[in-house]
């Protein structure tokens, strides 16, 4: 196995420490041996390979970012490269892992009390309990901060949740769902951990998706769902707290976009070396080399952006607009790269046999989730002008 990805043209991976690279290479081996061979089949069937969860757990990386979990704390750079590596193999499984570790575990780590962190995070780090994150609603996506309709009403030591959530990754099988709801008393958004099997909480799989088909997205219905005060995230008192989690996970999505770009470039490069037309490999044609270099340029530029973002994160000085710019820019460039790769493969590019079709489809979901390009643009625009343009 090559230690470096072919598409890591500037060898950014060598910025990791020797110990961090060892972790990354162990993950790379698992993904290539266990995930890549089944990725297309799971995608076609729109089924999640639950049998692989133990393999992910055995990697020992799910809880690295949280002090309550065993193991050394990783740098932002290692966390980013792990997200890149997972998306390079399969965007669906990268999304599964990101929802569990970033959104669900991140919510508990950021907004939970010390007791709540001790109660939930160790089991989640061992992946004995899988998490989901329920923020988006059927009528609210980009405007969810102001338009969130799910309500929480307190009755003594019990909170009663009513409402609906949509596009909830891992929602059909999650053991713990972090639900964001508006407190009927003070109008503020608060977080609640709803355990699997809680009466009044039902999850229905969303069918007929064209992207991330392996991800088990669900519609969540909450009808008189009773959650104890002990399961309300004690440090989540407003949407600002929710936004802190999204700032971190947006940077992870930018890393995922880079992983998809590198995968698309490598697929196209291998094809260009092997496919012959007019008696020679198409990689010898100027127009094909132009496409390859454009793909590589996008991937390399975006990798440089997210590497610097990770350095700002490690220094504790990165801001919402830093993550927003990376998410908006990298996912836009990703759409270009997967399109060029499909173009290079011509008719074969629409066949799953050559993998690129899955990346083209999945890129559409990565482009949209964790804040659309337009919303992230407005976050950056407000930062650089000092003027808010949100409606």
TrEMBL record:
Cofactor: FAD
Chain coiled-coil ranges: none
Keyword tags: FAD, Flavoprotein, Oxidoreductase
Limits of the Acyl-CoA oxidase/dehydrogenase middle domain: 132-224
Positions of the Acyl-CoA dehydrogenase/oxidase N-terminal domain: 18-128
Domain of life: Bacteria
Pfam families from the UniProt entry: Acyl-CoA_dh_1, Acyl-CoA_dh_M, Acyl-CoA_dh_N
Domain (Acyl-CoA dehydrogenase/oxidase C-terminal) ranges: 244-384
Listed PANTHER family: ACYL-COA DEHYDROGENASE (PTHR43188:SF1), ACYL-COENZYME A OXIDASE (PTHR43188)
Protein family membership: Belongs to the acyl-CoA dehydrogenase family.
Protein name (database record): Acyl-CoA dehydrogenase family protein
Species this chain originates from: Nonomuraea spiralis
Taxon lineage: Bacteria, Bacillati, Actinomycetota, Actinomycetes, Streptosporangiales
